[in-house]
Amino acid sequence: HCCSDLLLLLLKTWSYVGCNPTIGDVVVDRYSIPKLCPREVKSGDYVRYHYNVTFQDGKTFDSSYERGAASVGQTGQGRLIAGIDKGILGMCVNEKRKVTVPPHLAYGSLGAGDVVPPDSTLVFDLMLLDMWNKADLVVTETVSSPRDCKRSVKRTDFVRYHFNGTLLDGTPFDSSYNKGQTHDSLVGEGWLIKGMDEGILGMCVGETRNIIIPPFLAYGEKGSGKEIPSQATLVFNVLLADLHNPKDDITVENQVLPESCARKSVAGDYMRYHYNGTFLNGVTFDTSYQRNNTYNTYIGLGYVISGMDKGLQGVCIGERRRVTLPPHMAYGEQGAGKDIPGSAVLVFDIHVIDFHNPKDSVEVHVTHKPEVCNLTSDVDDLIHYHYNCSLLDGTRLFSSSDYDNLQDTVLGADKVIDGLDEGLRGMCVGERRTVIIPPHLGHGEKGATGVPGSAVLHFELELMDLQKGVPEGYLFVWVEDAPLELFQAMDINQNGEVPIEEFGEFIMLQVAEGKGRMKPGVDPEEIIADMFRNQDRNKDGVIVAEELKLKVEEDKERMHEEL
């Protein structure tokens, strides 16, 4: 009963107990049986096996081990001696058995030349290495699969995968892991053995699959090198690392758009963005966050890989998006350094911090304007103002509220960055506005303390006070026309001499009546003293009519002398 039960079990996982059946006068001793046996030899199968053949006295006369090559044959077709044809049936790969073959099922009364005498009983010690049938197909088994599979392998795709390759008996012949790099190939184009071309179809990135390939869909009779013998079934454990098609374009997904988008990026813009760079299997190869610095570049001009050049166009400031780049739009077959292998698909999760164009000007948006506005700020004016300064992503940089006093500056005096100077002009006292300043009118490529290089700045401004100024080089200007007889008007006591007290009284009167204006932000007494010294040309402490000259007249005389 033990022997008949064994012959009935097909294509199942077996746990065997030893028994020694007799099959048509052939005695079988199954002295080493593997715990797992997914398949056993049937008539018509091809087998590859090692053997030692002895006579009943134990004398060896033939051995495949000594020949250095396993024997290959087909069962049930009369190509093996009859005793082996029967004795090998039901064997499992890696099973060892002794098969005792009587003479009439071996070489009979004739024997075999000088090697096997007539009427010899032969004892074959067999070890089954491989079995297959011409009707076999490629067998695949998914070991693990990713939760999300957006795409699977099709013919003409290019794949990168890791593998461990063994013979059917478990003998390893190759491994991509040992080489430290994936195996890269087109699918369905003859780059792979036929069985792998078929077995890898339908795989997802991150999937692990066992693929069993019969010899006629592998390396057949020729085998491959020293590691893969003739007529070997191959077993691959495959992990798909990457997948793309040579016709792929970039893909954009997972977009998160800001509430408002004044404009979208175009070729020629300069952009600052953060990114995480990963492969399709999720392994990170680079990230700007780790360096705590944005990546800054011109886009659409070839400064970055072509896929990123394309994927960064048409974005809004503050936008987040995922851009997937096929290798022919990334680093191609060569890869980049040690971190990015050849033919790798790259996935970038980007966050656009800001962008600008070198041709951009200061952008001004008035948020509040008082009903009455008689004066507006201009070059040379002294102003006092509140401000909040931030990056376009909302990161706060500076604020006038951090200080005890209002911020002040003289417009046009190169006291603040150019863009802010421009943004503060034309304001009324009480006016509020937001000002967007591109870096070439801000702190430039190098940035400043607390300000990143090439950063676009966002200012919230409120003008609190305005004192009209005087042109550069002037201490006092006339708002109205100066008196025709200026010295007589200045010589209040009409004694022909104007001391500093009289001079100061006259100047202060003009300012009080709105007829003239002194340079703001400077002590009036200092201004009067400087003006007096300029007019008291002989330094005798008084000004006489011959000494008095307007600065406009002095400038004309100086220009004439220079010419």
From TrEMBL:
Keywords, sorted A to Z: Calcium, Endoplasmic reticulum, Glycoprotein, Isomerase, Metal-binding, Repeat, Rotamase, Signal
Function: PPIases accelerate the folding of proteins during protein synthesis.
Top-level taxon of the source organism: Eukaryota
Protein name as annotated: peptidylprolyl isomerase
Pfam families according to UniProt: EF-hand_5 (PF13202), FKBP_C (PF00254)
Chief subcellular location: endoplasmic reticulum
Domain PPIase FKBP-type, chain residue ranges per copy: 44-132, 156-244, 268-356, 380-467
Alphabetized GO MF terms: calcium ion binding; peptidyl-prolyl cis-trans isomerase activity
Lineage: Eukaryota, Metazoa, Chordata, Craniata, Vertebrata
Signal peptide: 1-19
EC number annotated for this UniProt entry: 5.2.1.8
Keyword match Metal-binding: yes
Enzyme class: isomerase
One cellular component term from this protein's GO annotations in UniProt: endoplasmic reticulum
Compartments reported by the entry: Endoplasmic reticulum
Gene coding for it: FKBP10
Catalytic activity: [protein]-peptidylproline (omega=180) = [protein]-peptidylproline (omega=0)
InterPro entries: EF-hand-dom_pair, EF_hand_dom, FKBP-like_isomerase, PPIase_dom_sf, PPIase_FKBP_dom
Domain EF-hand: 478-513, 523-558
